[in-house]
């Protein structure tokens, strides 16, 4: 049996990560993608905790919750601010 | 080549890459039956030998401290790259005013900044006792300072985030690691060997020179991330100021 | 035959690569790169997992209780923090490209010459 040695919680979290990863790759708009990436980071934190790795879970928590959103959101805002205003009439 | 052709080639390559990966993974031991002796030996030996109750941090800073030095220099090099790409001619500070509107946000945010900085310092300091360490605490420290920007605006953030103070801190963190290692060499032992004595397990005084290296790494990670955030923030605020003035 | 975690690793890696190849925005490309990197973290932690083991922290716990492998955790934890700065470098490059050419689409930039 493939799942014989996995506890039910581990199987559930593996399924959530397997569904969240293509969601991050397939969201084309960067502003929405950072939100989905936040959810993926949360799923990874739970996965690392379930695999008995608290240091790694802490690391992913601070990085996925603080560093990635700040850096990506500022880049997105800068890219959008530089675009000429051509939607919504002018 | 057109996009469709590129995607077609990629799908063929991905299928063969996936097959290669699966063939490689079949050779691994079953999930949950870790075989290799290194992990078991370290779990047994880290507490009696080095008096550290957090075996992972002892592996990061003591048993495999040389690898961590390499990772720190990767961090240092990419921050140098970002600064070179984004730092342009000097802008005056008074043209970048970004105020949060509400007083409640400002007051409560500033109070919470103190709490989060304290938690980050605790994470770094107690890295050898409970989960934590220089890397996690360093990023949390930089995040606390970024919270100051969100709560109070750009002026107060500049107090914590000016580059004339952060650049030396980052350099001291990266160089301090090497200096502590050389201290081991100078006193006749190996590079990065613990020369301060192991200490008492389960307390703050446990780890010897690995604790110094922990603080150096924490300072460097915090300063590097803060430089990153402030460079990106300057990128964001200057066009905003331009729009407000015009 | 507990193959499921390793299949997950292969799946995440290929999905991230697909996101990179079909990307239309440089920032989207940076985040898909981070997804591919996260597959290596899952792989390393799955290799080191011991069934019925606890975390490798022994404060207040008797020495000798089963614990998972600490060495792979040390590799992963520094890697996560360092990968953020590498993605920030890619984003800085993307910002510069956008400043020079006015678009953040990899396909459009590839066609410019001179």
Largest two-chain interface? B-C, 65 and 53 residues
Rg of chain A is 17 Å
Order of helices and strands of chain A: HHH
* Proportion in β-strands of chain B: under 5%
Main β-sheet of chain A: number of strands, strand sense, barrel status?
none
Helical residue percent band of chain B: over 70%
- The count of strands of chain A amounts to 0
The low-pLDDT segments of chain B are: none
Q: Based on helices, strands and strand pairing, what is the structural class of chain B?
A: mainly alpha
In the residues of chain A, how many domains can be counted? Answer: 1
Instruction: Indicate the mean pLDDT of chain B.
Output: 83
N-C termini distance of chain A: 63 Å
Question: Which features would summarize this protein structure in a list?
Answer:
heterotrimer, A: 90 residues, mainly alpha, 3 helices, disordered C terminus, B: 246 residues, 9 helices
Topology:
The complex is a heterotrimer of chains A (90), B (246) and C (114).
Chain A: H1 8-26, H2 30-50, H3 54-82
Helix pairs in contact in A: 1-2, 2-3
Chain B: H1 3-26, H2 37-50, H3 55-63, H4 65-86, H5 103-125, H6 134-152, H7 154-161, H8 163-186, H9 209-245
Chain C: H1 4-21, H2 26-47, H3 70-101, H4 106-111
Helix pairs in contact in C: 1-2, 2-3
Quick structural summary:
Chain A is mostly helical and 90 residues long.
């Amino acid at each position: 049996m493939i799942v014989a040695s996995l506890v039910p919680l581990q199987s559930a979290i593996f399924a959530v990560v397997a569904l969240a990863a293509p969601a991050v790759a397939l969201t084309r708009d960067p502003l929405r993608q950072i939100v989905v990436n936040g959810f993926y980071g949360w799923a990874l934190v739970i996965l690392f905790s379930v695999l008995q790795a608290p240091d790694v879970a802490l690391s992913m928590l601070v990085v996925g919750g603080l560093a990635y959103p700040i850096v990506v959101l500022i880049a997105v805002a800068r890219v959008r601010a530089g675009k000429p205003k051509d939607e919504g009439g002018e | 080549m057109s996009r469709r052709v590129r995607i077609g080639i990629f799908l063929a390559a991905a299928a063969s890459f996936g097959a290669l990966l699966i063939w490689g993974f079949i050779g691994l031991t079953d999930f949950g039956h870790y075989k290799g002796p290194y992990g078991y030996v370290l779990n047994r030996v880290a507490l009696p030998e080095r008096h550290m109750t957090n075996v992972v941090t002892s592996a990061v800073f003591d048993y495999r401290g040389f690898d961590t030095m390499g990772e720190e220099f990767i961090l240092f090099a990419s921050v140098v790259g970002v600064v070179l790409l984004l730092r342009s001619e000097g802008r005056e500070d008074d043209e970048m005013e970004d105020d949060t509107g509400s007083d409640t946000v400002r007051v409560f945010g500033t109070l919470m900044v103190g709490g989060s900085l304290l938690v980050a310092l605790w994470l770094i300091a107690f890295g050898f006792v409970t989960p934590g360490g220089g890397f996690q605490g360093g990023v949390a420290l930089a995040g606390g300072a970024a919270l100051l920007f969100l709560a109070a605006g750009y002026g107060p953030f500049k107090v914590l985030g000016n580059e004339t103070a952060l650049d030396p801190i980052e350099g001291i963190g990266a160089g301090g690691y090497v200096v502590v290692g050389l201290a081991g060499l100078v006193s006749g032992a190996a590079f990065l060997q613990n020369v301060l004595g192991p200490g008492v397990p389960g307390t703050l005084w446990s780890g010897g020179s690995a604790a110094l290296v922990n603080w150096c790494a924490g300072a460097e990670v915090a300063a590097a991330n803060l430089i990153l955030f402030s460079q990106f923030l300057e990128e964001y605020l200057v066009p905003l100021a331009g729009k407000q003035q015009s | 035959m507990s193959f499921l975690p390793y299949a997950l690793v292969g799946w995440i890696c290929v999905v991230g690569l697909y996101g990179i190849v079909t990307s239309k925005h440089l920032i989207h490309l940076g985040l898909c790169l981070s997804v591919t990197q996260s597959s290596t973290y899952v792989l390393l932690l799955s290799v080191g997992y011991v069934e019925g083991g606890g975390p490798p922290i022994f404060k207040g716990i008797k020495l000798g209780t089963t614990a998972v492998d600490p060495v792979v955790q040390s590799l992963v934890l520094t890697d996560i923090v360092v990968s953020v700065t590498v993605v920030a470098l890619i984003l800085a490059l993307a910002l510069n490209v956008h400043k020079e050419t006015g678009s953040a689409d990899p396909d459009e930039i590839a066609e410019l010459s001179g």
